[in-house]
Amino acid sequence: xxxxxxxxxxxxxxxxxxxxxxxxxxxxxxxxxxxxxxxxxxxxxxxxxxxxxxxxxxxxxxxxxxxxxxxxxxxxxxxxxxxxxxxxxxxxxxxxxxxxxxxxxxxxxxxxxxxxxxxxxxxxxxxxxxxxxxxxxxxxxxxxxxxxxxxxxxxxxxxxxxxxxxxxxxxxxxxxxxxxxxxxxxxxxxxxxxxxxxxxxxxxxxxxxxxxxxxxxxxxxxxxxxxxxxxxxxxxxxxxxxxxxxxxxxxxxxxxxxxxxxxxxxxxxxxxxxxxxxxxxxxxxxxxxxxxxxxxxxxxxxxxx
Length: 305
Known about the structure:
single chain, 305 residues, Neuraminidase, four-stranded antiparallel sheet, 22 strands, globular
């Protein structure tokens, strides 16, 4: 064997060993990603809620809840007294419109519609309609941090649109992922202490999302929040998040639910014990059927969201 042949053979052996090592590295066990934190809840207070309200958006300001409701012929913008559920101000949308999410922007309230590609801007004080705006596709949820000029908008996909608050035009989009998995069906939004909280349609979970990267930072599992004694309409899913930044209070509700809950988040494994009847924090034990029908929308024959 010549010297050249020996060198060539040695090089081939080294290459084969390197390839084998690479193959073992690729197929061998990889360090797993830490699981996304999961939070449960403790009910601090429960408050009455209009069980005919098909809640699509919820917000808090100066001691009152503000609510956007849906369904054609029943869509509205409302100012609600938290303690009693009394609607103290209301503006109804045209009967052909399906109202969606709301948010504050300065002294204005923005409201989306589902399929009409139209949004409305109201004076926050008297609900006077100031102007309209348009967008492409579906409108689901809205949120803002109350400080910057950006507004976050969901459309039922895994993307959150970032709008310029002054022009209401789209600046960019975030794709929401839990690890590598895209999370779609993002519905009502709320900005809470540097994170976007998002209802996931037809689930009992809220995603805690980074507004910078779209990464899911945690999950809030609200399974069992509404009493099983409440016979839920098929469309009566968890939807509606509001935050009181002054007193650090978090409120949640659902479409056609009889209750708004103030909750405190707990790490997984620390969920509350069932409250005894009459104790503070007990959900309203009521048996309610909404008188509002939930018709099927024309687009793709989907149930109303």
